Amino acid sequence: MKPAWVLALGLAACGVPGRPLPPGPVAPRAPADVQVVSTPAGLEISAERPTRDLDGEPVPEPPSLLVFVDDAACRGVPAGVAATGPVVVPRPAGEVTLRVVAAVGGRQGPPAEAVRVAWAPGPPPPDAPLAFLTPDRKVQLAWLPPDAPAGVMRILRDDRPVGVAPASAARFVDAAPPGPHRYRLEAVVGAARSAPSAPADVVVPP
């Protein structure tokens, strides 16, 4: 049986006072390596999901990420929740404090270290890439370096990220599966990311 103090810690650190915990696993540990990126939709928060609970045992399933805004006790309804991938919080007005929490089976663990951040407009979207097949049936993308500074290009295949490349490299090769695909680029400068470019379509033969 799990120690009562462990359950109490999971509730007091980021739970709602007075709400009983449902039956289930021990609360997970705090998320690690919190990253925040400004995007046109708002703040995109990602973190390393913990694989151990507060007892040091493996968590029974991948934790969800909860993000609380300007709430030192992590009480109430989180501003964003994601079972997989990052959490997107709509553009806040001014600087806010973010606290990221992992949750499994209705239990919220302690928050990661608070992050103080403000939303910032990203760079302009890059031009659409050129996409063509290489002799070995891979997809090669080419683009013109953007006018505005851009550290890297984030490559999207069918609206999912598949890699990054330095903006100055102006090319990227993707081993895509057979079938039709649509590619877009996103420019990333520091902690801000642009809207996606116009698409480039290509068909990889079987």
Task: Write the topology of this structure.
Layout: H1 4-14, E1 32-39, E2 42-48, E3 64-69, E4 80-82, E5 87-90, E6 95-104, E7 107-108, E8 115-118, E9 130-133, E10 139-142, E11 152-157, E12 160-166, E13 171-174, E14 179-189, E15 192-193, E16 200-204
Antiparallel strand pairs: 1-2, 2-5, 3-4, 3-6, 6-7, 6-8, 9-10, 10-13, 11-12, 11-14, 14-15, 14-16
Could you please describe the fold and organization of this structure?
Helix content is 5%, strand content 42%. By secondary structure, it is mainly β. The chain has two domains: 4-118, Immunoglobulin-like; 130-204, Immunoglobulins (Immunoglobulin-like), CATH 2.60.40.10. Strands 3, 4, 6, 7 and 8 form a five-stranded antiparallel beta sheet that branches. Strands 11, 12, 14, 15 and 16 form a five-stranded antiparallel beta sheet that branches. It has a three-stranded antiparallel beta sheet with strand order 1-2-5, with no helix packed on it. A hairpin with a 2-residue loop joins strand 1 and strand 2. The longest helix is centred in the N-terminal third of the chain and has 11 residues, at 4-14. It is globular. Residues 1-13 and 15-19 have low confidence and may be disordered.
